[in-house]
Amino acid sequence: MIAPKDGHLAPDPETADATPSTFNDAAGESNNSRSAHRFVWGFGVVMVILAGGGFLFKLIEFIAVFTNDEPLQFAVMPVLTYLIVAAGYGCLFMWAYTKGQFKNIEGPKYRMLEMQDEIDAT
Fold first, then answer.
1. Percent residues over pLDDT 70 in the chain
2. Which residues lie below 8 Å from residue 96, measured CB to CB, with a gap of 6+?
3. Which of 12, 61, 63, 91 is 20 to 30 A from 100 in CA distance terms?
């Protein structure tokens, strides 16, 4: 971070995306950082597969209850409503991801500080 004359912190343009824990030399990422990155991705993939399998199992179980004349059929509408709402949130997330809403999550705080400086100046 660079501290300009007015005392506000601004990101250093040379190291805007780099932090001391991710870059140790000019050549790029350290081995520790790469292995941690691989571990997180691997763990995430395993968790998504396990959660997807559990969800698929429950979905098949739900369809079986829906098609049979079992006493649990009273729960069909609330669960169906939940699935529709969850699909809506999933579509909203995919829209935001494809439109790039998660690309620069640090930018709004700097824009807010700049706008506050403009408001204070008036």
1. 75
2. 102
3. 12
